[in-house]
Write a structure and sequence with these properties.
Largest sheet: 12 strands, mixed
Order of helices and strands: HEEEEEEHHEEEEEE
Strand order of the largest sheet: 7-8-9-10-11-1-2-3-4-5-6-12
Strand content: over 45%
Helix content: 10-25%
Number of strands: 12
Number of helices: 3
Shape: globular
Length: 210
């Protein structure tokens, strides 16, 4: 599920009061080519019989460069890195000193990363997702995206906008796990250096290629 977190960015919209979620998403795809932010993520797993749901919270920083480059750096409670350089998707677990890599083109088609960091236009997204406006909630406007393919783990994802910012992702998988990513201090940029998305395998790390 960790690759989900391959997803985030910012938006700048001049007529947000008149815009619905789909219009905001379309403008985001057009106008936000690179950006960075802090984030918090809360993952809630389904409750087992006689037990409360399990909730895990993490935080860190995020950056993206369209098309297809992004980096999530988890700082708390454990250090992890998820980075896509346009060719390879890499997950690094610092505690295990373990690196997992797979071909990016096979990993991101129907994920939140495709929604926010990869697709060049709303029309391009529609080849992978069914998109619709969701009801306003929590002072935000929402887009509901449902993958057209049924062979992935992602059930749906909601993308939230508030004012001139992209504020949240709410992700649900086929096993009932819910992940909420909220962005803080979103900042759009013309571009980021390619070095921001490079990853050097640490000395002695176990490397798994899928």
């Amino acid at each position: 599920m960790k690759y989900w977190i391959a997803a985030a960015a910012l938006a700048g919209f001049s007529n947000w009061a008149q815009a619905d979620g789909l219009q905001s998403l379309e403008q985001f795809l057009k106008n936000s080519q690179a950006g960075e932010a802090s984030f918090t993520q809360t993952v809630t797993s389904p409750a087992k019989e006689g037990q409360a749901p399990r909730v895990k919270t993490s935080s860190g920083s995020f950056a993206f460069q369209r098309p297809g480059k992004f980096k999530f750096l988890y700082k708390k409670p454990f250090e992890q890195t998820i980075v896509a350089d346009g060719t390879t998707l890499t997950l690094f677990d610092a505690d295990l000193n373990q690196v997992t890599q797979r071909q990016q083109s096979k990993a991101l088609g129907q994920t939140p990363a495709a929604l926010l960091a990869s697709a060049a236009s709303l029309q391009a997204l529609k080849s992978e997702f069914n998109l619709s406006n969701a009801p306003d909630a929590d002072g935000q406007q929402w887009v509901l995206a449902t993958p057209k393919g049924q062979d992935g783990q992602l059930k749906n994802v909601k993308v939230g906008f508030k004012g001139d910012e992209l504020t949240a992702l709410e992700i649900e998988d086929g096993f009932g796990q819910r992940s909420v990513v909220r962005f803080v201090g979103l900042k759009t940029l013309p571009s980021l250096p390619s070095s921001a998305f490079e990853f050097s395998i640490p000395s002695g790390a176990e490397v798994i290629r899928q």
